[in-house]
Specification:
Length: 348
């Protein structure tokens, strides 16, 4: 049995608020922890009314207060949007709040449109952020490990909480440091993760055509490191289980309408299935819906289990990270419960 995990976009449906969505996240985290899911990640997105996950570190701190065992992390923090020192401080704080349970997943995309990315970064030279990703990553790792060389201008700057506290009189070294994951939807981060010997997470849920090439590149590029002796890759998968197949199709159609609006520059709240049923898709939109829905593993619990098993065998992924696209939190919660039952995961 391969590990199952959760990727949460903290989606907000029509007629709901961000408060509803965040309460659902707590409910899902508690449920999946009790059923033995391995980790729970929160994604960073901006300027999208239907996605309330613009501040992963804040949400993770809240989830840490409501869970005790499940690993929590970012899937991911978009590093070019932030100063590496700020990320080191945020995740050092999270590690102090939930020792040994925090993952730091990093991406190089903005997680939004260009105008919003420019507002976040206070610059319109966005390509520089992406191009500088390896240097930003190296700087972040230095802050997390507190090991800038003496000649470096940041040698006397320390991320707190962090290792520097152990060097102070009476200080005690924390045994944990958040492990870094690289996230990607193409070959760039796959190759970088392999070269650095880091675990890799691939966004199969929106770049399915690149999954196998990226995983192959990661494995071919992999060099053993102090972090990993062998490659370890997970893939993000859109998966939705319902009590009957028709309801799964209704929910996926609504999620597809949400994606149509997002891709055409009209982001909004996640529509209800009733709204999606009444919507008249153009021929081009209908083609997109068909293509997008084909990569969502959906149906009854048994159908979803079969689809997930086939996908894992086809890709060789070490772990599957499931994200449920649905209008209501109740549907999403029920989906994870059904999948846990289908895999006969224990109740603890």
């Amino acid at each position: 049995m391969f590990p199952l995990s959760v990727l949460d976009l903290v989606t907000v449906g029509t007629g709901r608020t961000a408060t509803h969505a965040l309460r659902t996240s707590v409910d899902i985290a508690r449920l999946t922890e009790s059923r033995g899911f391995h980790r729970y990640w929160v994604a960073e997105h901006h300027s999208m009314p239907g996605v309330a996950s613009s501040s992963p570190a804040v949400i993770l701190a809240h989830l840490a207060a409501h869970t005790t065992r499940i690993r929590l992390g970012s899937g991911g923090v978009m590093l070019p949007n932030h100063a590496p020192l700020a990320i080191a401080e945020q995740f050092g704080t999270l590690e102090a709040l939930a020792p040994g349970r925090i993952d730091l997943g990093l991406g190089r995309a903005p997680g939004t449109d260009g105008a919003t990315a420019a507002a976040l970064r206070r610059t319109d030279r966005l390509h520089e952020g992406a191009d500088d990703f390896p240097d930003q990553l190296a700087e972040l790792i230095r802050f997390l490990d507190d090991d800038f060389p003496e000649a470096h201008p940041y040698h006397r700057i320390h991320a707190v909480p962090g290792p520097v506290q152990a060097t102070s009189p009476g200080g005690v070294q924390s045994p944990n440091r958040p492990p870094i994951w690289l996230l990607g939807s193409s070959g760039f981060s796959a190759q970088l993760a392999g070269t650095l010997g880091l675990p890799f997470a691939f966004a199969h849920h929106f770049s399915a055509q690149n999954t196998i090439p990226a995983l192959d590149l990661y494995r071919e590029s992999f060099r053993p490191s102090a972090v990993l002796a062998a490659p370890y890759a997970l893939i993000g998968v859109s998966a939705l289980a319902t009590d009957d197949e028709r309801e799964a199709r209704r929910q996926v159609r609504a999620a597809a309408l949400n994606m149509v609006r997002l891709r055409t520059g009209r982001p909004g709240l996640v529509p209800s299935p009733e709204e999606a049923e009444a919507y008249q898709f153009s021929a081009m939109e209908a083609d997109f819906v068909t293509s997008w829905s084909a990569n969502v593993v959906h149906g009854t619990a048994d159908e979803v289990r079969s689809g997930l098993n086939d996908l894992q065998k086809r890709t060789g992924a070490d772990e599957l990270m499931l994200t449920a696209h649905a209008h209501s939190g109740e549907i999403r919660l029920r989906s994870y419960e059904l999948i846990a039952d289908a895999y006969e995961l224990p109740t603890t």
